[in-house]
Amino acid sequence: MPQARRGELWVIDLGMAQKPRPCLILSIVYLDHERAVVSYVPRTTALRSTRFEVPHQARGLEAGAFDAQGIGSVPVVKLERRVGSVEPAIIQQVEVAVKLWLNLP
Description:
The protein has 1 helix and 7 strands. The protein is α+β, with helices and mostly antiparallel strands. Strands 1, 2, 3, 4, 5, 6 and 7 form a 7-stranded antiparallel beta sheet that branches. The longest helix has 15 residues, at 88-102. β4 and β5 form a beta hairpin.
């Protein structure tokens, strides 16, 4: 399986509680001796206009947002397919939202 890279958009199987959905990969590529996991922020179309949502539009996807409150990690076997990449400015906005959500400097 190809490794997901930071800034890429992948459809991830998030389990029974949620459906497979596009997610922004935030983690860096892991090394061979490290756990095969990725950290992500899910993309949603159920917008709530919170300070933790970063609006995102992409061809082929409904208007939506990355929801920093949904940050998580999954084994790479849960990655279904790569659907694109995200502009650096959006990644920076998602980082700001995640830091705000986690109360990080």
